Amino acid sequence: MMNPLPLVLATLRRNPVTTVTFMALIAAAVALGVAITAQERALKRGSAHAADRFDLVIAAPGSQTDAMLKSVFLRTGTIELLKPEVVARVFSEPRAKIVAPIAFGDSHDGAPIIGSVPDFVSHLSGGSLAEGRVFTDHEEAVVGFASPLKIGDTFHPTHGHGRMGDEGGDDAHQHGAEITVVGRMAPTGSPWDAAIVVPVELTWELHSLPNGHEKGSDQVGPPYLSERLPGVPALVVKPDSVAAAYGLRSRYKAQDSTAFFPAEVLVELYALLGDMRSLMNVMALATQTLVIVAILAGIMVLLRLYRVQFSILRALGAPRAFIFLTIWSYVALIVTVGALAGLALGMGLAGTVSAAFTAETGIALQASLGGTELALVGAIIAIGMAVATVPAALLYRKPVIDALR
Fold first, then answer.
1. Count of domains forming the chain
2. Of 153, 137, 159, whose CA–CA distance to 206 is shortest?
C-alpha cells in the first residue's frame, strides 16, 4: 500500500494561504463553542465558591436574587431594610452560631465599606486572618485580601459608592471618622476581597442611627439591646446544624422577612444559564457544521484543479484506494488541525473573559478544559472526517480518461 502522506503534505505546501485560511475559519468556529462551555462552567464554580460561606441570608420581603447580589456579591443599589424587631428576633435565636448584619452605604476610593461583626470577619476569612487582627474598636477596619490598603493605613469613609470627585458623585462627602486598618482577610475568591469591613456600630453611627448598645458605649459586636437596634439591609446567619438552617429559613420566610440559602438561588440562576447555554451550544454546533460544509465545498473546487494530477497517478498504476485515502487525509488534516487550534483559541478566549470578569466583579473565575470541550472538538473532527469522504469519493469514482481530456 502506497503512503499518501508525502502527497498530502505537498498539496498543503502548494496552497499555504488557502490551507491556513480554511484552518483559521474552522478554528474560529470551534473556539466560539469551547469558550461558551468553559466560561459557563467557570462562572458556576466561581459564584458557588464566592457564596460558600453565606449559609443563610435573611432580608426584607422582595427579590431573593436582588438581596443575594447585594449582600453576597456586594452589587451596588438600594434595598429595603429589615425591620428592627426582626433583626432583634434573629439576634436572639439560640440556634444561630453567628448572626452578622450586612450594612453598607459608604466607600473608600471606590471600594465598598461594609459594617458587620468580628465573628463574621473571622468566618469569612476561614477562621484566621492572613495578616493582623480583627477590629475591636469602632474606628478600626479589616480589609479584603486584594485591597491596596496596608495595616496601619488610615482613611476617611465616603458616603455613597463613588470616588470623591467622580462625575455624578456630587452628593458624595466624607464622614468625619478616621479609620485605621488593623487586619487583612484571607482570600475568599469573591467581591469581599476588595471590600473594607468595619464594625457595624460605626456604620450606624455615621448615619445617625442607634448603635445597638447604650449611648456612649464603645462595645463592638453582640450582645445588642433590642430597643437600640436599627434596621439593616440583610443578616447572614450561620446555624449550628443543618436542621437548624432549615428551621430558621422556614421561620423567617414570613410576611415581614424572607430567608433563603444563596446556593438555592444560584441553582435557579444556573438553570436559566443552562438553558441559554444549551441554545448557544446548538447554535455554535450548527455554525461549525455550516463552516465545515462551506470549507469542504471550497476544497472540492480546489481539488478539481488537481484532477489531472490524480488521473495521471491512476494512469501510472496508483490504486483507487490510494487516491481516496490521499484526498480524505488532506481534508481530514485541515479539519483536525483547525479544530485543535480552535480548542486552544477557545480556552485562551475563555481565560481572557474570566480575567476581565474577575477584575470587574471580584468573583474569582478560572476557565479549565473539561470533557464537554473535548467532546465538542471530537464531534467537529468526526463530522469533518465523515464529510471529507464526499470529495474523496467523487474524485475516486472519476474515470481516468474523462479527467485526462
1. 2
2. 159
Chain-centre distance of CA 4, in angstroms? 46
Range of the domain at 94: 56-260
Q: Could you tell me if 389 and 287 lie in one domain?
A: yes
- Encode 334-345: b = buried (16+ Cβ within 10 Å), e = exposed: bbbbbbbbbbeb
Of the residues 218, 240, 260, the one at which a domain ends: 260
For residues 116 and 163, the answer to whether their CB atoms sit within 8 Å is no
Distance CA 120, CA 222 (A): 12
Q: Which residue has the cell 450586612?
A: 102
- DSSP state, 247? H
Give the whole-angstrom CA distance, residue 367 versus residue 244.
Answer: 36
- Same domain (yes/no): 254, 123: yes
Percent of the chain with pLDDT over 70: 83
For 269-282, what is each residue's pLDDT tens digit? 777 666 666 666 67
| Helix extents (H) in 131-261 | 200-206, 242-252
* pLDDT at residue number 306: 62
Does the predicted model carry a pTM greater than 0.90? no
